[in-house]
Amino acid sequence: MLQEVEHWLSARSWSVADRPLHQVMAAKRATGQSVSVVLPALDEEATVGEIVAAIHRDLVRQVPLVDEIVVVDSGSTDRTAEVAAAAGARVVHRDAILPRIPALPGKGEVLWRSLLVTRGDVVCFVDADLREFSSDFVTGIVGPLLTDPEVQLVKAMYDRPLAGAAGQGGRVTELMARPLLNMHWPLLAGFVQPLGGEYAARRSLLEQLPFPVGYGVELGMLVDALHTVGLDALAQVDVGVRRHRHQDGQALGRMAAAIYRTAQLRLARGHLLRPTLTQFERGPNGFEPRTHPVDTEERPPMTQIAEYADRRVA
0.90 exceeded by the pTM? Predict the structure, then answer.
């Protein structure tokens, strides 16, 4: 490991207990910063309500740390929107945001559009499929941004159990993302959960970054943030254990391909490879190929969008 990364791990890796809630609230009052929490959601009726309710109860009603909770629904066919609204979130449909630009499928698309419908100086992203959710996820990753003006982006780190076994989650992280980062961006080798969906950043940073529209958004954002503000502006906080729905092997394969593609574009823009992935399923005539496109679209920095600039002037 690089000496710079060893120093970073000791200086920029914390536990949620390192910043008690009263300290974080004092910093929020002193600096006047506002906080938005965004949950991207697609058919998450079973879990989104409990997450929103916990944040609303603990960090809106009991302690006013969070100024708004926004669920961006990307086309759910279940009761995701209804459940989220009942729990205390403002629900916005992806397609209603920036209708001038037709929406593309993917998580990164939702996160990018969320900048147009939130106001917080600090934007905190939380996946909507978490189980046994604790509001410490929010206070942990928002805390450094409110208490330390040099910090620009904070990732959550945690254990990810799989089928009851500790430390077995995050298969795409271990098989794809971590090798890529260690080989090509070794300054980012200290991140425990580089692909984790729970992270917070200053709006002033997020609005400068391009957003891969699909699964590559977390890796792309981390790499681009490193190049934009440097390693010392990035941090991570241990929030305990993350439990969520796990995907099957073929879905993970598509995720890994999209992440590789995102990395490849950053390594050599303009050197294009064939952006598809062929997988196999057993059919009536044996194994049959199924070819899937790998998402390569990216959205530009939000500062390049006229509607965003108009909103800031207004």
Answer: no
